[in-house]
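Progress note, project year one: complex with tryptophan.
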Amino acid sequence: MTRDTPRDDSDEETPTDDPAARPATDGGSDVAAGADEVALDPWGSSTVSDYRKLFDEFGIESFDELLPEVPSPHYLMRRGVIFGHRDYRPVARALREGEDAAVLSGFMPTGDPHIGHKLVFDEIIWHQERGADAYGLIADLEAHSARGLSWDEIDEHARDYLLSLLALGFDPEEGELYRQSTNREVQDLAFELGSKARFAEFEGIYGFDGETSVSHMQSVVTQMADILYPQLDEPKPTVIPVGPDQDPHMRLARDVAARMRYFKVTEAYASFEANAAERDHLAAAYAALRDGEDDSPVRCAAAADWIEAEMAADAAHDSVVDKLRAAGKEPLRPRVRFLDRNATPEAFDALIEAIPGEKRRYEEHIDAFDMDRADAEDLAREVEVDHGGFGFMAPSSIYHRFMTGLTGGKMSSSVPASHISLLDDPEDGYDKVKSATTGGRETAEKQRELGGEADDCPVYELYAYLLAGDDDEFATEVYEECVGGERLCGGCKEQAAELMREFLEDHQEKREEMEAVLDDLDIDLDTDRRGVAGDGH
Ligand code: TRP
Ligand code: SF4
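Model obtained:
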């Protein structure tokens, strides 16, 4: 499995879900913690028993730590429903500073849109309201090849996803809605990106094998293209809100985006190449030695001596000492380095021209002595874009928790009682909430005495994820009344059921209003496409 992302979060504290500090929303997922291992499979059944493991095992970072950097965060962020991210900082910064940013997510039209999809719709809309270019796409190629849906079924469901997205507030004048199959630019980009993706990594990342259909693989490069599509006009920080099951796609997209770049910018101390661990040693040696009495340069050989005398022997230790010895009298000098990855000769020459201050050209890299890293990144991107490259920034992602099914267990489109479809008759929605499993005690008496288990209650989740909306006070009140034993499940469910009925009535009314808006958009929802659906391999 490839992993480009530095796991620099690994020593951060894992978040504590202190119910006193804020209502917990993880639906009691800790119950099964430790029982099963975490596997992220975009096409498997996705349950996550312990979200904390995703931080340690996959390098997903905790969203909580970033929360203060997000301008007026969405309630899903405030309540920990959005629990993790990969590299969201550049997006948060762009939102704060009113700079360009984009948001994109995609939906496989395999069934009705339900309240789980609403989380993602809301995330897209929230970013759009804060000025991001917004995109919503129908993953019809993926549904056809990997899920075996016919084109007729796909057309029908596609319409429903788009109507709900519009009804919840997506502005189609400002944003873009598309389906994968008819977006020529996405197809072309997918083809380009395919040059930088290898079957061997599909095997490693997704478990593909000799039985996997070529169309399924094509749907993967299509998703890579979806993710980078917002940057076709211009590179910009882009966030992809998804469930953690999509993280393998994000890791691959980030890798592929980097492989498409003309130049890689790194920091270096001497003419030789060093990896990150070796660079740490070099930085330490340089910092220790450069403050000598005179202004004489720090020689590589002296740095080797210092490292041998002062630093613990680890893997990088021996290799960096060898490199320093070979460099001998060469002075150690910090610099930024531009490595040639895919640059055309013209772009390589243009970069040399454009670098300010002292620079040195080598066969496959250029060293610049008077630039900092950030300026170097900007310059590399600029030259790339001017010479026919894309200059992609690594796409970011945010991850939301999966909702617990109303019947306990997993919320699944194939079990109607477990979820509430956005198309459910409002009365059915009411009934489903009324018959939901709760975190209540066996008797009212016990409940008054011990309090309910809101953390393990699908009904509480409905409040936190949807019914309380932006009203934190209300969500906290439900939580505290529940765990304090003042709230009993009968009344609590009645209240939730009524709110659900109202929500569905209102949403469906808005959907109707959006029919005309959708018809005016240039999206073909009545394809006469022919073909044979894939069998999921
Ligand atoms: N694979 C996603 C799913 O299973 C759908 C999807 C396609 C997507 N392209 C995307 C999601 C781009 C996010 C970004 O639901
Ligand atoms: Fe759940 Fe409400 Fe019962 Fe508490 S009172 S366990 S939140 S249904």
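Residues 191 and 363 are 30 Å apart (CA to CA).
Residues 438-440, 452-454, 457, 459-460, 482, 487, 489, 492-493 surround iron/sulfur cluster (ligand 2) (CB under 6 Å).
No further modelling is planned for this target in the current period.
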